[in-house]
Amino acid sequence: MLSHSNPLGYRNLLTWQQANDIFELTEKFVVSFPSKHPKTGQYLTDLKDQMIRSARSVVRNIEEGYLRTSTKEYISFLGFSAGSLEELIGDFKYCQKGEIGDPKGCAKGIQMGVGEAKMLQKQIKSLEEKGYREKTVSGNDMARKELKNRAKIEKDFDEYLKDILDKSDNKNK
């Protein structure tokens, strides 16, 4: 069971602080968009709106989870934040590849997003271990989470290798 003497204590969390920085960066970044996609000519309003919603969701889920009554609920909301963040990073990468918006802002968004993702994962892992010690998270839940993490690491590594091979193939052409 979580107990918070300060209901605004989430503001002291580095994950919340950086999520706010990412939210602000995203708001500034989408202002740099042209009205239409430079390659397809499609309007970019939906992409702008989605990036803002994703960035906002990262922040708000940390806040909401912090005040939940159990460690397990808190972990779930941090997971929602991590999911929204992954979506936002994907959108920044899409913008980078499509040369949409300010390139420096885009690179910074990706960099900050990846750092935030690592911090959120560490926070989640720490809370899971706390829940396991307090017997509010089962050993089976921990094992399932570890298997899921390993599968994600393998997938990320496969994508990394594919990217390297693709770049190597393009160089040799």
What does the model show?
- With 173 residues, this protein is mostly helical.
- It has 2 domains: 9-137, Up-down Bundle (de novo design (two linked rop proteins)); 138-173.
- 77% of the residues lie in helices and 0% in strands.
- The protein has 5 helices and no strands.
- It has helices at residues 14-31, 45-66, 71-98, 103-133, 139-172.
- Helix 1 (14-31) packs antiparallel against helix 2 (45-66) and helix 2 packs antiparallel against helix 3.
- The protein is flat and about 55 Å long.
- This is S23 ribosomal protein.
- It comes from Berkelbacteria bacterium GW2011_GWE1_39_12.
- It holds the Pfam family 23S_rRNA_IVP.
- One of its GO terms (cellular component) is ribosome.
- Keywords: Ribonucleoprotein, Ribosomal protein.
Helices, strands, pairings?
Elements: H1 14-31, H2 45-66, H3 71-98, H4 103-133, H5 139-172
How many separate helices? 5
CATH homologous superfamily assignment of the largest domain:
23S rRNA-intervening sequence
CATH class annotation of the largest domain: Mainly Alpha
Given the C-alpha coordinates, what overall shape results? flat
Label the CATH architecture of the largest domain. Up-down Bundle
Rg from alpha-carbon coordinates:
18 Å
The structural domain count equals 2
| Beta strand count | 0
Tell me the series of helices and strands, N- to C-terminal.
HHHHH
Structural class: mainly alpha
Main sheet attributes: strand count, strand direction, barrel closure: none
* Averaged pLDDT: 89
SS strand fraction: under 5%
Helix content estimate: over 70%
Q: Compute the separation of the termini in Å.
A: 59 Å
CATH topology description of the largest domain = de novo design (two linked rop proteins)
Low-confidence regions? none
